[in-house]
Amino acid sequence: MKLRTPQLDFLQTALGLPLLAHLYARIGLAALGVYITTVVSGSLWAQAPLEPTAAYTQTESLREDAALRAVAFSHDGQTGVAVGDHGVILRSSDGGQSWRIQPSPADCVLSDVLWINNKNVVAVGGQYDRITSLSRGVTLWSDDAGASWRRGADNELPRLGRLARRAQDNAVIATGDWSAIAESREFESHDAGRSWSSTGELEGIPAVQAESKSAVRLAWVEATGAPMVIRDVVEKNTNELFAVGDHGVILHSDRASGRWQAIRGEQRHASILVVAKDASSLAWPLVGSETLESHQRVAIVLQQPETVSRSDAAALQRLYRTRQAAAGLAAASVDTIDPAETIEAEAKNWIAIHRPAVVVIDEALDPRTASAFSQTAISMGITRVVRYGFDAVGDSTLHRNAMLPFAGVLAGDIWDDSLQIASPNSGAKDTVSLRVMYDASGNPPRGESVTTGLSLSKHQRLAGKLTKANRRQLQVVQARLSESKRVEQMIQSSSTADFFARGLKTLLNQTATHDQLRLAWSIQRRLASYDADEFPNAITYLEIVLAESAERFSDRSFGKWSALRLAAIQNSAEWQTLHASVSRSLALASSTAPAPAQQAAVSPFQVDTPHSGVMQTSAVSPLRVPEATTIQVGSQRVQQSQAEVDLAWEFHPLVLIASEAARQRGDSEKLELMGQASGNYRRLLATQSPNPWTRLIAPGGTRGDHSDMSPGDAHAIAIPIGERPKLDGIAEEACWTLPPANPANRDDVTSLQVAYDDEFVYFFVRCARAAFQHAPATKTTNKNRDHDLSHSDRLRISIDTDQDLMTAYQLQVTPSGKTRDSIDGQAGWQPTWYVAVQEAGESLHYELAVLRRDLTELPLQPGQSWFLSAAVVAAEAETSLPPIPDPTLWKRITFR
C-alpha cells in the first residue's frame, strides 16, 4: 500500500507532505451521469495521438537512468512495479529484492501506478504537444501482474498524474490536467484501466498536488543517504518501505533498523547542478551536450515557475513541460525554488540534495539568487562554479551550429526542440557562453564538458548504453548547417508570393521528416519578427508558411493551430488594420510620386503647465486608408475524416473561443452572425467545473459604479464619461477614484481601470515601482514612437477587440515615456494615443488615451466587450505571445 500517514519518528514531518500520495476517500456514483466515455466498439481502443520523441532521444537506452515517479506492490507483496520518465516500467517478482525493465508501449512519463488485485495493475501519465502544449493522457493496463502492458482507451484524456481507488465501488480514479471534453480533472475506470469515463467532479474538485519543499527533499536524503530527490514511497507491509527517485534509484528499508539500502542505482547522483531563472533562460544545448554527448548526470533547479506548496495548476503544467523537455535530453530532474524560504536556505538545501561536482548558474538570475548559489557552493566544497550567459563572451562558448558528434545533432536543434515543449513563445539564442567563477581543482575545463579535469565517480555518469551516431546521420546533420542562411535567402530573394511558396515547399521536402516541423516553426517565428513597415511581404509570406504548415502537419495540433492562426490574421479586426497599412506601404513603394506631406496632430490634452507630463504618441495626423484586401493563399482546405478528428483539439477552449469570434465577425458564409453560438462553446460557457477559460468568457455580474480590473478578477466595467480626464497620471477624476472591485494579487500590475467617451478610450494603470529596474537611455531618434524598448522594463497593454485570443493591439510604454505600438508585434499599426506617467510613492501610474476609431470603426455600445491584458515586460524578455494564450493573464471588459 502507499504510505499515507507519518509512520517513522525521524520522518514525521516529511511523510505528511505532498511527496506522498494522499488517501483518496471520496465516494461517488458513476451511474448518476457519464459525460464522456472512451470506449469504442469491439475490441479496438482509441488512443491519444502522442507525438514522437526527438530522433536523438534514445528512449530504450535512457530508461536505465530514468527518474522513477511512483512505485506500488501487489496485495500479496510479492510483485512490485515502478514507473517513471521515458515510459520506463520496472518489475520485481521477488518482493522488491531485484528489478528488471519491462517492455513499455509508451515513451512519455508515467506518473503513477496502482494495483487492483494481484494480477491487474494500472499506470497513467502523458505528455504535451510541441508548440501548442496540448495535454495528452496515457493509460496502461496489465492483467498478468505487470509482465506485459497494453494501452488503454485514452484518446480523450489529458495528462494524468495520480491514481487512487474509490471506497464505495472500487473504481480506479485518475486525476490530471483539466479537460474541456469532460469538463473535469477527474476520470474513472470500472474495467481495470481499459476504458475511462468522467462524471464531472460530482463530489468536489480534486486538489492540485503542489511540489514539496526542499527541506522535505533534504530530510529524505539525510534519512536514506541517497543524494537525489525521492519521488515516491510505498509501505509494502507493516515492516518494509520502498522509495524511488531520480536516476532510477530504488531504496529499501525495514522499520526495525530504520536503515535504508539501495536495491538499484546505488550511489548514483548528479555530477552537474544547473540553476536557471526559468525554462526560457535555461541553457538547453549545454544540458544536452553534457548528457547526450558527455554522458553526465545533470539535475536542474529553476527559480520560476513557483510551484512549491502552491496549488497553481498553470504553474505546475509549465514545470511538467520543462521536465518533459529535460527528460528528452536525459536530464535527471527539474525542481523549483521555494520563494517563501530564504534563498540562502534554498541554495544550501538543493546543493546538499544533489552533491554535484559542478554548479552552473544562469546570469539571468537576480543577483541575490546567483550570489547565494555561488557562495553556498564554494562554502560546501563544490569543486567548480560556472556561470553562463548568451553574449558570446566567456572562457568557452557553445554555438547553435555546433555539432554534437556522438548524439548526431546540432546544438541549435536541441535548443529549438526543448523550447517548443517548455516555452513555445521563446526563441533560441545563437551562443551559450561559459565563465569559470571558481575552480578548486587547479585544472580549468578545456574540453567539451564543464567537468573536464575533475575526478568523478562512475556513478555520476549515465549507466545506459547510448549508441553513437553513424556516418550517415552526421552527414545529414552537417548538410543542415547552412539551413538558416538558405531560409534567409529564400525570404529576401523571393520576388513574388508564388516564388516564395515554391521555395518553401522545396526546402521542406528536402528536409528530413523529423526535422520539418522544427523548420516550419522557425520560419514562422522569423517572419513574425519582421517589421511589416520595413518588409511588407513578411505578412504575405507568413500566411504562406501557415497554410503550408496547416496542410503538411494536419495530423498534429501544430498544423491545426497554424490553420487557426491563418484564419485569425486574415479576418481579425486587429489585422484588418494592419493589412490596410501594408497595402499602403506596398502602394507607396511602387509609386514614384513623393509621399504626401503630413502635419502633426494637435493634442486635445495639451495644457499650459510646462511639466504636465502628457506625451503625444502619434507622430502624424491619422490617415484614412482603404479597406485591406486579404491575400488568398490557396483555396484548398485541410479535410479530415471522422476517424482523424482530434477531440482534444476540437474541444480546446481556444478553438471554441476563436471560432465564436469568427462567427461574430462573419468570417465564413457558413457562420451566421445572427445564429446561435456552437453547442460546444455554449457548453464551455455554462460549465460548473472551475477553469480559467470559462471564468474569462462567462458574462460578469453587476459591478456598480467602479471600473477597476485587478488581476484577481476576470471581469471589469468600462465607464462612460462626459468630461475628459486631464491625462496627467494623477487619479483625480471621478472615474479613477471609485473603489476597486477586488484586491490585487500580482506584484507588477496592481490594477487597470477603463473609461470611454465618443472619441477616446482611457486607461489608468497602477504598477509597482519595484517592477521597473532596467531603464537604459534610448538611442536618439528623429521619431517619437515605435522605439526599441527591448532593453527596458515597460508596461504592455494588449487589447483584443474581437475576443478571439489570437490577435491583439499592443501599447507599450516605459517609465520615461518611450513608446511602441503594434499588432502582435507588427509596428505597421500607427494609432493616435497619448500617455502620461507619474510616480506615486511605491507605485507608477500610467494614464493613456487612445483614439477610439483606431481601435474600432463603430461607436462603442453598452454591453460590448473586449479582452484586455496588462503586464510589466522585463528587459530582454521574450515579447512574442505564446501560441496558446494563458487565460489567467486576460480580463474581459464590458462597456456600460
What would your notes on this structure say?
With 896 residues, the chain is of the alpha+beta class. It contains 20 helices and 37 strands. The protein has an eleven-stranded mixed sheet with strand order 27-34-35-30-29-28-37-36-31-32-33. It has a seven-stranded mixed sheet with strand order 20-19-18-21-22-26-23, sandwiched between helices. A four-stranded antiparallel sheet has the order 2-3-4-5, with no helix packed on it. Helix 4 crosses helix 8, helix 6 crosses helix 7 and helix 11 packs parallel to helix 13. The chain is globular.
SSE map:
Layout: H1 12-15, E1 36-37, H2 59-62, E2 68-73, E3 80-84, E4 89-92, E5 100-101, E6 109-115, E7 121-128, E8 135-142, E9 150-151, E10 160-165, E11 172-179, E12 184-189, E13 197-198, H3 214-224, E14 230-235, E15 240-245, E16 250-254, E17 260-264, E18 272-276, H4 284-293, E19 298-302, H5 313-328, E20 333-336, H6 343-354, E21 358-362, H7 367-379, E22 384-389, E23 396-399, E24 403-404, E25 409-410, H8 411-422, E26 431-439, H9 471-479, H10 483-493, H11 497-509, H12 513-529, H13 537-552, H14 557-571, H15 573-590, E27 614-616, H16 647-650, H17 653-665, H18 679-686, H19 692-697, E28 715-720, H20 734-737, E29 749-756, E30 760-768, E31 794-800, E32 809-813, E33 819-823, E34 833-840, E35 843-851, E36 865-873, E37 891-895
Parallel strand pairs: 18-19, 18-21, 19-20, 21-22, 28-29, 28-37
Antiparallel strand pairs: 1-13, 2-3, 3-4, 4-5, 6-7, 7-8, 8-9, 10-11, 11-12, 14-15, 15-16, 16-17, 22-26, 23-26, 24-25, 27-34, 29-30, 30-35, 31-32, 31-36, 32-33, 34-35, 36-37
Helix pairs in contact: 3-6, 4-8, 5-8, 6-7, 11-13, 12-13, 13-14, 14-15
